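Input record (Table S2, row 456):
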Amino acid sequence: MARFDYVRANSLHDAIQLLNDPGMVSKPLAGGTDILVYIRQEEPWFDRLVDISRLPEPIIVERDGTQIYLGAGVTFAEATRSELLNQTAPLLVDACRSVGSPQIRNLGTLGGNVINAAPCADSLPPLVCLDAVAHIRSPEGERQVPVSQLVTGPNRSEVKAGELLTHFSFATPPAGVRSTFIKLGRRNAQSIARLSMAAMGRTNAQNVVDFARLTPGAATPRTERFREVEARLLDQQLTEELLVAAGEQATATMLEVTGRRWSTEYKELAIRALAERALRRVLHNGHGAC
Amino acid sequence: MEIEFTLNDQQIATDAPPDITLLALLRDHLSLTGTKEGCEIGECGACSVILDGRVINSCMVLAPQVAGRSVITIEGVRGAGGGPNDMQENFIDYGAVQCGFCIPGVIMAGEALLTHNPRPTREEIRWALAGNLCRCTGYQQIVDAIEATAQGRANGADNPGDHGEG
Ligand code: FES
Ligand code: FES
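Output record (FE2/S2 (inorganic) cluster complex):
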């Protein structure tokens, strides 16, 4: 007896209908890299997987005016190869490239990565940093939720049964804004959540910061922009001291959210160093001494 | 359920339960045991196969997901005469095989790499093997063998075999 059934959705409409079939618990199947691990270890809580990986109308990566649309079914590998993403969201490309192995990059999807909300989901900090919005379809229509509010904590997302995350959208960052994503290597951080850092920034001709965003990954239960750090940087002359102060603020902001716990001693140092390094990378433009 | 797909360039149809992995389909239902079962959680790469031209872990794909698609396993990698192809020969020549458990997966990753990037740097070869764990060799000879294969193919010396995607 099979432990669950499988059906392939032939269109988006079909997928929504299948996911809402009464009398049966259905779960979407995209890249499968999380579900396949899950069903090996646990009894499945669903009756049926609805394969949404081959819908005829997938959104890949498209630009419409100033908006970028990014399909939830785009794999890490596809994202890495996308010229549009390389131009508009290098931090997301960095994050996708940092995912384990070619085999997993060829299967795993951005939507699945966000929805399953593992504490170390690599694509989450960049999407939050980009102020990306998730588009969620249900029989009632579409609703939009900022990605930062979609994932409420480790392994918990706001997408309800019967709903389907179809794509993300975000505004093209202003000209001259640079972005990066850095992650602490797995081996260095083996027994501790894998910290990462997404940053965007720009300095003007006077070497004054006029754009700054910072989103640490796995530092706090919710992945959010650290607005205190951003405020600390904005309209300031870029100096070495400013970067140090921003790093310290990142640690302070994390502690405000999490309080002190067993991993804090490690994390406070790591967050400060990562924040400083990421911000230096995006803000340093050759105008000034820093 | 009935699953129809292209396996090593042959159209096949097979009956299998919907809840098994592609790895189990290959090994247990189709008796193709060249693809190895290691961790079964996507970490070791022993189960690597090529799906529609890209290397993936067959333990991370549900069997019915391959319907209508093309799968190449290590059994589909061979020279024109049916023996080892140039890459497999090079693995032997460079001493890249010790216990051999990881090798089918490594070959699939190597072939996928050369399909998309026929002249990789050593760095790119290492990067392409990031998902394949080998407990024995230390990777040096594996990288050498793949590098030699790329070189050989570029020189047109030894053409890749009849394994489609490469
Ligand atoms: S058995 Fe599939 S990756 Fe290890
Ligand atoms: S040769 Fe033994 S694991 Fe690679």
